[in-house]
Each structure stands twice: as structure tokens, then as C-alpha cells.
Amino acid sequence: xxxxxxxxxxxxxxxxxxxxxxxxxxxxxxxxxxxxxxxxxxxxxxxxxxxxxxxxxxxxxxxxxxxxxxxxxxxxxxxxxxxxxxxxx
Length: 89
Fold this sequence. Notes:
Elements: E1 2-5, H1 11-19, E2 23-26, H2 37-47, E3 50-53, E4 69-71, H3 79-88
Parallel strand pairs: 1-2, 1-3, 3-4
Helix pairs in contact: 1-3
């Protein structure tokens, strides 16, 4: 599966997804880090990727045609809870 993870998704999750043979782009440390939601949305649409994020702003796109959006929402998020929730999906 082709996936793009937003910068708020822990690296341990990126590593685990890659170990499962997913094609994962992590925007941390790239020129896309800090991009607006709209820039990231255009990127995942153009590349045909599932977006994994904790940013609820992407809910506005759920009625549009897309390749998938996983928005992780937790009351008291930390990297371990985010990781567990993504891997549970």
C-alpha cells in the first residue's frame, strides 16, 4: 500500500509500516515538512496514497474521492498511543 504520514505520526509507526512492506513517505526532514494541509492533500491525491495524520482538518475531504484518510484522534495522544491506534487499524 502507498502511504504518506504526516509529521505528527511517530517514526516507530513509519518503521513498522515499512517492515510490513508498505511504500511509506514520511515528510519529516523533507521540503514538505510544515506544509499546509492543502499542499499535503494535493500530494497524496497526485501520488495515490493513503494519508495517516492526527490533524482533524482533513475531515473536510472525506466526502471527496480519495485514496484513504486515517485520522487518529485521541484524548491524550502520545507517540505510543498514536502508534498503537494506527497499527490496530
